[in-house]
Amino acid sequence: MNTTARVIQSTGSWYRIMKEDRTVLDARLPGKFRMKDIKETNPIAVGDIVNFSVNDDGTAVIDEIKERQNKITRRATHGRKGEHVLVANVDQGFVVQSVNEPKLRTGFIDRFLVTAEAFSVDPLVIVNKIDLGREEDAEEIAHVMDLYESLGYGILLTSIYDDASIEELRNIMKEKTSVFIGPSGVGKTSLLNSIEPGIDRPIGEISKFSNKGKHTTTFAELIPLSFGGFLADTPGIREFGLIHFEAWEISLFFPEMKDVQQECRYYNCTHIHEPGCAVMEAYKDGHIAASRYDSYINMVESLEDEQKSTGSRKRG
Ligand SMILES: Nc1nc2c(ncn2[C@@H]2O[C@H](COP(=O)(O)OP(=O)(O)OP(=O)(O)O)[C@@H](O)[C@H]2O)c(=O)[nH]1
Ligand SMILES: [Mg+2]
Ligand SMILES: [Zn+2]
Hints:
The protein has 7 helices and 13 strands. The chain has helices at residues 106-119, 138-150, 163-173, 188-195, 255-258, 278-284, 290-310, and strands at 3-10, 15-19, 24-28, 49-54, 60-65, 71-75, 83-88, 92-98, 122-128, 154-157, 177-181, 221-224, 230-233. A hairpin with a 5-residue loop joins strand 4 and strand 5 (60-65). It is globular. Zinc ion (ZN) is lined by residues 261, 264, 269, 271, 274, 277-279.
């Protein structure tokens, strides 16, 4: 018999899959599983919907992977080529940052927002650990809140010590598949443990030296939520790489640049050095936030570096 299930854990050789009725099976891939997309380092990711059959010993064999509605990928690590799929088939992606430990980085948020749009995932910005906010942080937090709200993004201030914020997260997650993406130590797993008490996944500490987390979560996992829906917790990532972009496309994913750039003198303006650039004008006039323009330049530069190193630059 052949049935469908969803992959909720993956170690690379074994998978844990969950059926519609929420029963769970251990599964593996047959030796000659066809890899449809060889660009990816993991053929099956958490969130994938698969067809499977059951062996005599009660374990399952994955026969087929269903076409993905979407996926969130990152560049492969450890010098490997290609992409690693963090999670597949998600409705919304939450980019998680924290106040102070580690420090909030708008550059990380901005990269995620650009990528989420390209991946067709609804984004939400989460700033966690607001209980740690000192008096001098209040202004920065308010500014970050204003900035993303004015751009049309949802932003939520949370703390595992603030029940109202946890309840708000539950409401947003109900009946949906959501994923936490963020650096190590910002509190992704802690939030999960608060949202779904009883889950009790291990959390880490923050290094006194680097003010960073210690990569406590090492594999992505999809948690079925008792109130409906799924939440994927992922390992912390230092930087969110940009994939599948051409430099000129990036500004299309900045809501505050998208329309302005039609006034640029050159149609292929990169908004960095060209005369008659409407985006630079808007930035100088204060209509585009400095942090956002910086993020934009960083993204263009890292794409150019990438294309130089792989020699894949397309000419147009
Ligand atoms: N003060 C405060 N500390 C928090 C909060 N949320 C998490 N922490 C602490 O932050 C540390 C790291 O939390 P984790 O949940 O392991 O962070 P993570 O994002 O899952 O990290 P990785 O799994 O390494 O990616 C732990 O010591 C938590 O107790 C919060 O809202 N307020
Ligand atoms: Mg974690
Ligand atoms: Zn321009």
